[in-house]
Design goal:
51% of the residues lie in helices and 9% in strands. β3 and β4 form a beta hairpin. With 247 residues, the protein is mainly α. α2 packs across α3. The strands form two sheets. A two-stranded antiparallel sheet has the order 1-2. It folds into two domains: 71 residues, no CATH class; 125 residues.
Length: 247
Amino acid sequence: MKIRRISKEDLEELNRYPFNLPYVTSLSSAKFVLEKRISVSDQHNFCIDDIFRNIILALRLLKDGYVSGSFIYYISLSSKSQLTSWSKEEGPRLNYFGLNYTLNFDDIPTLKNLVRKLQGTDFSKHKRLYLACKRFQRAYEEEDPEDQIIDLMIAFEALFVRKDIKGAWPKQKIASACSNLLGKNEKEKEEIKNILSEAYSIRNHIVHGAKYQKTTPTDINYLPKLISKVENYLRESIKKILDQNIN
């Protein structure tokens, strides 16, 4: 299996056959494909679907910026490596207008390690972590910032709020647990607490139908900036908890 750029030969091959790509999809040598060759004796056990999704999740957990997988194609080749048939499975929607994603060579070892961890995690035994990852992924595909913050805070609840343990309100539990997990000193911990408390309050206003008032009305980018910080805290929390589960 390998990740490689779409080649000139790929584009020529696709042009010879009726692949009927969605109108929003464009192929160029600037994009990448995940390729796995399967022999006739191996057949297809569809594990590639999970691997594909784990690679996308690993890329998103690695750093901020938008990265997405659009389609999975199953292409059958003859003994002469000629196309004989194909099918596809729809992937995430491409509707997010976020930061560009840059993968550097120095990132590759960390990325490979993240993929191995995700592949080695039995999410059926770690359902709260699974839900957090699911909502983290879903937030990427939301167009509305309010929907994004709802998904992100649901993910935090999955990680840090246990209903069978009585005590502080969810907002305090999330803020305290995440600050203790990620904060390196008291100043960092206090900053994390403040940001997550604000984010949870905004989430409450939205889901209960109240009008959200910006803390700083003159800053039209306040919510997107807050979401970026919350997303990064969630990203780092998932990676830390993933390490704990593996180790």
